[in-house]
Amino acid sequence: MSDASGDSRSSARGELAVAADETPVAHYRDHAMAANTRRAYAADLRDFVAHGGFLPEWEGAPRWLPDQEAPGTPPEQLAAYLAECAPALRMATLRRRVAAVNSWNALADCPPPGHSPAVRRVLRGIARTQGREATPEARARWRTRQAQPLRHGHIAQLLAALGGELRDVRDRALVLLAWTLGTRRSELTRLRLDDLHFDADGLSVRIDTSKTDPEGRGTYLGIPRIDAAPCAVAALEAWLQAAAIHDGPVFRRVDRWGNVGAECLHDDSLSVILRDRLLAAGVPGAGAFSSHSFRAGLIIDTIAAGEIPAEVQERSRHRSHNVFQSYIRGLPDRPQFVSRMLERAAKTPPGRT
After folding, report:
1. pLDDT 10s digits, 239-248
2. Which label site among 138, 178, 202, 224 has the fewest CB atoms less than 10 Å from its CB?
3. Residue 54 in contact with residue 70, Cβ under 8 Å?
4. pLDDT tens digits, residue range 258-316?
């Protein structure tokens, strides 16, 4: 069974260690964006420059930027770049690349080229035609990038294949908590014991920071105890007791000899553990699942069971309604919704709609 670990949050919450080779201004400027966003923007900008794009210089700019004389990125150059990339890239990726170029120009006190009418018009044109003009290879790649939702049946099959070893105890708690909470992978792997509050009714979990709460105001998610197995609360208690965890990270590496590490699991390890467990349980297409499958499966299963979409969205903490709707478009099985719709239609007096 593959396993991975990463750095834990060793410093107290709220502390930020400034590297010796950077100023406090540069440190906080860089942390205005999430780490994943910074990495994505850096890759986008490198690709733009590799295609002949110009980026203005500014104090503290990365050293990979070649010497350029342009005072700012010309809008027509960005528009040409988008047109060149349109057949192979999603609209979301194209918009992110525009945002990356805009952000860079803003740091150099230059007008963001993506705000120009020329670039906006090209983006609108790509959005209207991309579905018809995208290459077959691109369409196939876009389809396969979507994580397979982890449904109730998958979870039941996975749990049935687990034994009683320490890794099994951990992974049972990990799978049940990941699906029940519907959290993002970093929110789950970085949970600490003081984020949990157990009582007779169940469990309250504090998510201190997240993609939709970067400033760390925190949010609480509850999980009730249930008498029928499997119970996520009971599974988590069993893991904490078996691993003798009294403080620090909740989910940790377990080596082949059953030794429990001191650091939290790496974010990427959640996908590795899930795929390995599904493969061992004989679930077809195990390679199509990822850590995002927990979140997608929770949304689809609860909507299919007849829950109100607005309440499910509140649980999943999606700020964008369009993004949330993308999980459930084309969902074939919504029997309770159809039943309620037919009941309302039957009660409507003739002549009224």
Report:
1. 999 999 999 9
2. 224
3. yes
4. 999 999 999 889 999 999 999 999 999 998 898 888 888 888 888 777 777 777 777 76
pTM of the model: 0.63
Q: Does domain 152-336 have CATH number 1.10.443.10?
A: yes
Instruction: Identify residue 56 by its one-letter amino acid code.
Output: P
Torsion of CA 264, 271, 150, 307, to 10 degrees: 40
Structure tokens at 81: 């770049």
Q: List, in sequence order, every residue forming a beta bridge with 173; answer none if it has no partner.
A: none
- The arrangement of secondary structure in 32-142, i.e. its CATH architecture, is Orthogonal Bundle (1.10)
Report, in this order, helix, strand and coil percent for the chain, each rounded to 5.
50, 10, 40
Structure tokens given for 122: 């090209």
Domain boundaries of the chain, sorted by first residue: 32-142, 152-336
- pLDDT digit string (tens) for 320-343? 666 766 666 555 544 454 444 445
* Cα angle, residue 219 at apex, residues 181 and 36 outer, rounded to 5°: 75
